[in-house]
Amino acid sequence: MGKINYKKKDFAENLSKKKGFSVLLAKKLIDDVIDVLINNISKKKMNIKNIGTFKIMNKNERIGRNPKTKEKHLITSRKSISFLASKTLLKKINNE
């Protein structure tokens, strides 16, 4: 199974074909959903029923190494997003 590059444009076209929206309206809807996700995830842990849970993880500063040259460099502290799929979503994926 290979990697699938799915762009917002592809998502909007698929949504417009499936539901009969114009592509512009589908793009607007997708942008609005992404904005809502970003705003809610940045505040706290976010659970979307039957899909999964998004939460922010704080990663500490650490020393990293270039595997080729073995050169050390500093990786700064940062925030990362973690996603844990719901049992319902995992069941649907594994049954198909």
Strand order of the largest sheet: 1-2-5
The best one-word shape is elongated
First-last Cα distance: 14 Å
Number of helices: 3
CATH superfamily (homologous) name of the largest domain: IHF-like DNA-binding proteins
Task: Give an overview of the whole structure.
The chain has 96 residues and is of the alpha+beta class. It folds into two domains: 1-43, no CATH class; 45-96, HU Protein, Chain A (Irregular), CATH 4.10.520. Helices cover 44% and strands 28% of the residues. It has three helices and five strands, in the order H-H-E-E-E-E-E-H. It has helices at residues 8-19, 23-43, 87-95, and strands at 46-48, 52-59, 62-65, 72-75, 78-85. The strands form two sheets. Strands 1-2-5 form a three-stranded antiparallel β-sheet. Strand 3 and strand 4 (72-75) form a beta hairpin. The longest helix has 21 residues, at 23-43. It is elongated, with a radius of gyration of 19 Å. 2% of the residues are buried.
